[in-house]
Amino acid sequence: MTYVIIGNGVASIGAIEGIRRHDKEGRIVVIGAEDAAAYGRPLISYLLAGKIGPDRLALRGEDYYVKNGVDLKLGTTVTGIDTAKKTVTTDTGETVKYDRLLIATGGIPFVPPIPGVQGADIYSFTTLAHANTLIELSSTIKRAVVIGGGLIGLKAAESLFDRGVAVTIVELAPRILSGGFDEKAGRLAANRLKKVGLEVNCGVTAKEIQRTKDGRVKGVLLTDGRFLECDVVVVAIGVVPHSAIAKEAGIKVERGIMVDGKLMTSAKDVYAAGDVAQALDQITGEHRVVPIWPNAYNQGYASGRNMAGAKQPYLGGLPMNSISFYGLPTISVGVVNPPEGDTAFEVHALLDEEKETYRKLVFRDEKLVGYVLVGDIDKAGMYTAFIKFEMPLAGEAKDKLINAGPEVFLWPAELFDETWNPEPTKAAR
Amino acid sequence: MKRVYPDKDFCIGCHICELACLTAHSKSKDLILAYTVERGQSGLASCKHVHEGGPTCVALSCRHCDEPACVAACISGALQKDPETGRTVYDRDKCVGCWSCLMACPYGAIARHPLEAKIVKCDLCFDRPGGPACVEACPNKALKQEER
Fold first, then answer.
1. A327-426 placed in CATH 3.60.15.10
2. What confidence tens digit (pLDDT) does each residue in A60-103 have?
3. Which run of H or E residues covers position B101?
4. B128 vs chain A: nearest CA distance in angstroms?
5. Residues B86-98 pLDDT 10s
6. With an 8 Å Cβ cutoff, are B5 and A420 in contact?
7. Which of A409, A414, A419 is most worth mutating to test chain B (most B CB atoms within 10 A of its CB)?
């Protein structure tokens, strides 16, 4: 059995570990376009900020690939998939035969068609190479504009600021972190950034990137008429699934590569996982592209198990983000912005602006379906449990959760016993 | 693998397991020094926590899950599954303190270190000759380490 994995990010690592749980013998080939062995992609902001050195980036130990019997081909891009012949071809001229194929090519930065966006001095912030470029630049540039106030944009902004660059963030939405956080959490985070010295502008975006005669960036003209002088622009609107290779092979792609309950695509023995896949979402029951780290690992792992014949379905992902801004920790899980006016949802929010703490709980059908924590995050996992295990929370139990916080004694007795003190035959792993 | 299983029917909420954990993970290996000095100075903290719900109590810590949510969520590779021992292992030097594991673990078994951007999590006292200190110290055998 030969497993070929296209991509060498965290979904790929998950897949290796999923395969090896069930198949210690099969050959695994990993083809990665980047030059580095799998690294903690979110760590590039820590690297750019100077908080860690390059020696701390690797996600697994030096002997990991050898120990797991993985033939690792780095700096190699797959140029075509032939699902009939079951082969992939690479830009190094190789043809690799597979029995099972995993497409884990991740996402690529989305660059909107702003006038002037093509050309020098425009950067993305999603790869180690991007981070290294910005580190090099940071000693010579004075001002940067970051377009996009989501997780990637804010982290790029914070790290550039830590390198001594004056940074202005522009965000089209009325608040930063509009995807995973609500208005109050976004404001607490924005206040922390402003206090430190970053400029945060919401409700505006770049109308045009203006350039000098020789093509260098002069600054950004905003939709409200202001002009922000700068040396570089970082475009961090988001990522889109890197699915071209699948489309060309005739594999079904909607927003991302469509996968079934075992993460197999429309082509037999071809699977997809991570930011490129449109997979099951636990809460909505729909297939969505949710480009977050834990989902990528879990989908990789589940696809690995299934490729190795374990026949275990993927149970669906849960959107979740944990991110700190200059010492202010924030966590959001599940549905945090229920549709306005939808009476199926019940929201309980507690804000203490002075202490910079916030807690929002979102219920639907007497179950917790989402939460946001800012400042005091210590009980996050216990809240996650109620969402993940879809525990019923009626009457007193819900009141206790709201008033006293999550507690393991609110769990149904059966789940409690299976989890913590199971009969040997019922031990849940 | 042998895991530690807490039995709420036998737990008397005495917190002795927490103190045993504290001592086992201290530099001095002395209960009084661990509690009075190391807790304050180096942020020494117990991996075990006694939960109380009315008359019931139970001492919980990392379950060393077969497929841990913390490992999936870890952005730095600090948390990994050791395929040989089955333990969920934590490499403090790799941890950047992003709290993703704390968010993902539905068992509330990961805590923030009191002083540093690191976590506190049960290591099953892997290098302790007598096995987990909490199990050894429990006066009512509410904690058992066994294969199930």
1. no
2. 999 999 999 999 999 999 999 999 999 999 999 999 999 999 99
3. helix B100-104
4. 23
5. 999 999 999 999 9
6. yes
7. A409
pLDDT digits (tens, 9 = 90+) for A270-320: 999 999 999 999 999 999 999 999 999 999 999 999 999 998 899 999 999
| Domain boundaries for CATH 3.50.50.60 within chain A | 2-108+240-307, 122-237
* SS percent in chain B: helix, strand, coil, step 5: 25, 20, 55
What is the pLDDT of chain A when averaged over all its residues?
A: 96
Q: Do B8 and A301 touch (CB under 8 A)?
A: no
What would be the CATH architecture of the domain defined by B1-61+125-148?
Answer: 2-Layer Sandwich (3.30)
Predicted pLDDT of residue A429:
66
CA A298 → CA A10, A14, A134, A157, A278, distances in Å? Answer: 9, 6, 31, 29, 14
Q: Is B141 on the interface with A (CB under 8 A)?
A: no
Chains A, B: CB contacts within 8 A come to 122
**What residue type is B48 in one-letter code?**
K
Distance from CA of A266 to the nearest CA of B (A): 26
Comparing CA positions, the residue from B97, B120, B24 lying closest to residue A52 is: B97
Please tell me the distance from the alpha carbon of residue A324 to that of residue A330, in angstroms, as a whole number. Answer: 6
Picking from A333, A410, A424, the nearest residue to B148 by CB comes out as A424
Cβ A282 vs Cβ A247: under 8 Å:
no
A378 touches chain B (CB under 8 A): yes
- Nearest chain A residue to B61 by CA distance is A420
Between CA A200 and CA A34 the distance in angstroms is 33
B72 touches A at CB < 8 Å = yes
- Domain A2-108+240-307 is classified in which CATH homologous superfamily? FAD/NAD(P)-binding domain (3.50.50.60)
DSSP A225-278: S-EEE-SEEEE-S-EEE--HHHHHTT--BSSSEE--TTSB-SSTTEEE-GGGEE
- Closest residue of chain B to A294, computed from CA coordinates: B73
Characterize B66-89 residue by residue with b for buried, 16 or more Cβ atoms within 10 angstroms of its Cβ, and e for exposed. Answer: ebbbbbbbbbbbbbbbeeeeebbb
Most distant CA pair in chain B, distance: 41
CATH 3.30.420.40 fits B64-121, yes or no: no
> Which of A:276-315 have CB within 8 Å of B?
293-294, 297-298, 301
Query: What mean pLDDT value characterizes chain B?
Result: 97
Of the candidates B108, B34, B135, B27, which has an alpha carbon nearest to the alpha carbon of residue A405? B108
Q: How many CB atoms lie within 10 A of CB A331?
A: 27
